[in-house]
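[step 3/7] fold_predict: job queued, chain A
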Amino acid sequence: MKSAILCIGTEITTGLVKDINAHFLAFNLTAVGLSPKLVLFVPDQKETITKTLQFIFEDEEIQSIFITGGLGPTQDDLTREILAEVIGKKLCFMPEQWDNIIRFYQKIRNTLPPENNKKQAFIPEGSLLLENPLGTAPGFVSDFKDKKIFVIPGVPKETEYFWPIIKTHLPSNDNQFYRSEMIKICGVGESQFETELQPFLSSLPDTLQSAYLPFFGEVWFYLYSYQKNHQVIQSAENIIKKIKEVWKPFLFSQWGNTLEQACGKLLREKRLTIAAAESCSGGLLSHRLTNIPGSSAYFYRGYVVYSNQAKIDTVGVPSSLIAEYGAVSEEVARALAEGVREKSHTDIGIGITGIAGPSGGSKQKPVGLVYIGISNFQHTQVKKHLFSGDREVIKMLSTQSALTQLFLQLQRGINDER
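[step 4/7] structure written:
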């Protein structure tokens, strides 16, 4: 059994707004075994929406359809009207929904709603109304050609609100899509990882397939099947278990969904503290580390030392080092890491210096050159990187590499003897 996702909105198809809903729905639908066969985006145009709905309805594999957007009060919000027309139902006024809209306006804006909001109180005949406490547009569930149609607002927070409600109305599915536990590793390239996994995958049954996803220096891996049964699950779990044992030093997903979560958990467990001095990454590393709830237990402080003088004044980088080697150098990265650790009185210090571009590079030191230093009470390690991409990508890769370097050190073991 498969599903389809249809996101409606000219603001999405023209690139004015970045889609979030399709990603959210696809992830959650896959988790419950309703793998999307189609993920489609259409503008607020009647003919296009109509043809797209007809196309989806003709696909016999698709049993559940999820539509977001086009439920507002303005003239270009056409979803409910077009769907009712396509499935041959009239629109029915729901007095209880109009009361909800009135209460929402009185509570949020201390006024009565404009008359055009009344269109949001109509849903196709025979549909199930899904109330929305976060806005004026309700959701609803319709049936057509043995398919369940779930229509919900396109505002991302409202889409997320409706998911637990939708789950209670999903059709039973005896032949679900299966996806194994996701393995996430760092510090190893995708090609090397795939090559070294082949002995584990040679015994895969035909119904199981493998998937790799590179993500900013990480590699994500999982097994999947369109047949969910005991044999498939058992085979996948056995293989995943073996892979996790062999790749444990690089496996961060057992500690957290992200590298910053994994590093944070290890820092907390080992009772270690950390501080950062960042140049080209502009505070992004500190931002990521402090995004984790409870990070104050291990993250003491972060400095953005963008200018040469800031490096000298803030964490004590000797001016002679900058004069001799330049701000972007192994020596300065080492001094940043050691200086911020000593000044902050932490167990670990991280220093990042580089050239994020697009200007500022040279033949000897091109754009993308980044040095990352990590200092602890045993030693200081500095690694040189040469990244490609725009300014934002280089900043992201710099912090990814810093977190990878930190994670691998924590995994190998930094004694917490002071």
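[step 5/7] annotate
Residues 156 and 400 are 27 Å apart (CA to CA).
The longest strand covers residues 218-225.
exit 0
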